[in-house]
Amino acid sequence: MKDDNFLKENNARHLWHPMGAPGDTQENAPTIIKSAAGATITDLDERTVIDAVGGLWCVNLGYSNDVIKDAIAKQLYDLPYYSAFAGTSNPMAIEASYAVREFFAEDGMARVFFTSGGSDSVETALRLSRQYHRLRGEPTRTKFMSLKKGYHGTHFGGASVNGNNRFRINYEPLMPGCFHLPSPYPYRNPFNETNPAYLAQNVAAAFEDEIAFQGANTIAAFIMEPIQGAGGVIVPDASFMTLMREICDRHGILMISDEVITGFGRTGDWSGARHWGVKPDIMTTAKGITSGYFPVGAALFSDKVAEVFEKGGPDAAIFHGYTYSAHPVGAAAVVATLSETLRLDTKTNAGLRGTQLYEGVCALAEKHDIIGDVRGGHGLMTGIELVTDRANKTPMDAGSMQRVHAATYEAGTMVRIGGNNILMSPPLTISAAEVDQIIAALDVGFSAV
Ligand code: PMP
């Protein structure tokens, strides 16, 4: 490895960071993470902190899982690559598809299409939704509906259903035929409704209204995250996803559950949809599928969808896919990760530690009036919305958010900033003592502004 000065200088000079301003990297140099172990990361200056971000909502099993590392290494020697485009396959791809299907069998998932990540999985789900309706003889069903505040990646399809302005505005015009409903976000919503159950009913009514306006026979699918992640960890009422499912069913609309964050135990159950008692038609996954150790995603399809494709003849050919779909090394990472996920029963720890983190942050809200809203309590996804004025809910400015971030890091915990939210999704293997350290570091961070 090159020396530290080389790394710092050249990182700023040649590397464009996703979600960052290219002109900003000299002034605001990134923290360079050089190693990691368990739930901690170590930077170039030898500072070790707890990673309350879990990489990017993905390192579910922590950084030290040798079973996954060994599986990846072994596969590199057995077969580092072969294509899975029609006509060829590889043993690990077959094993991985079996493992993923088994993992989500209770959610009604029957078939697996591998991708290279979450955005690819969303793109796959959207495109195959249209093809599904075409195969069934309803080619007019091409539109998509989604929720404001939802995050579905950055491909053009995903950005078009994305409900956060900053991921859309620079790249417009986006895909036509995409419509957004209010988020079931009690802290801020156009209905001024703070009761989550009533709010869920309002959003469901808005869905019905929009379907009537567009015409049900023009809508292919509705996509939602069971708990909105990047948009600020927005937890809907327990009734919400069921209400939306029932409306989709009544109007022949496919329901896509975007489980890129919520899949594989993060919510305290193996999928977010299962957490809410819903069976979607399609699920999109990534992140926890390899604990972030290798870039893999998967779109999963229920029997209902699979049957249409499998009986569809030549028209059902899926002219969609990626060079790295079912990559053997990625597939080996998937098989190892899922078996470790089940062995460690990470969903149980996610539930316990998630409650601990949520309650700890709620207690901090008594002390720091910059905390406008605390969201979580369903596994290890926690969002804290910071404001400068509680009564008016004035969002905290970017500079102050950065100060909170820096002070929290100094106090020993890496968190993520998304707008005026602090976002947390630590490894699902985190200990109770480490969760206490996160809460203590946040206390210091909030005192900095
Ligand atoms: N969907 C959801 C719900 C996500 O949270 C993300 C990533 N945070 C994506 C899709 C996109 O995944 P990726 O960044 O792997 O393309």
Structure, described:
By secondary structure, the chain is α/β, with parallel strands linked by helices. It has two domains: 137 residues, Aspartate Aminotransferase, domain 1 (Alpha-Beta Complex); 278 residues, Type I PLP-dependent aspartate aminotransferase-like (Major domain) (Aspartate Aminotransferase, domain 2). It is 39% helix and 16% strand. The protein contains 14 helices and 16 strands. The strands form three sheets. Strands 4-10-9-8-7-5-6 form a seven-stranded mixed sheet, with helices on both faces. Strands 11, 12, 13, 15 and 16 form a five-stranded antiparallel sheet that branches. The chain has a four-stranded mixed sheet with strand order 1-2-3-14. The longest helix is centred in the last third of the chain and has 22 residues. The radius of gyration is 22 Å and the shape is globular. The mean pLDDT is 97. The chain binds 4'-deoxy-4'-aminopyridoxal-5'-phosphate. 4'-deoxy-4'-aminopyridoxal-5'-phosphate (PMP) binds next to helix 5. 4'-deoxy-4'-aminopyridoxal-5'-phosphate binds next to helix 5. Keywords: Aminotransferase, Pyridoxal phosphate, Transferase. GO terms for molecular function: pyridoxal phosphate binding; transaminase activity. One of its GO terms (cellular component) is cytosol. Belongs to the class-III pyridoxal-phosphate-dependent aminotransferase family. This is Adenosylmethionine-8-amino-7-oxononanoate aminotransferase.
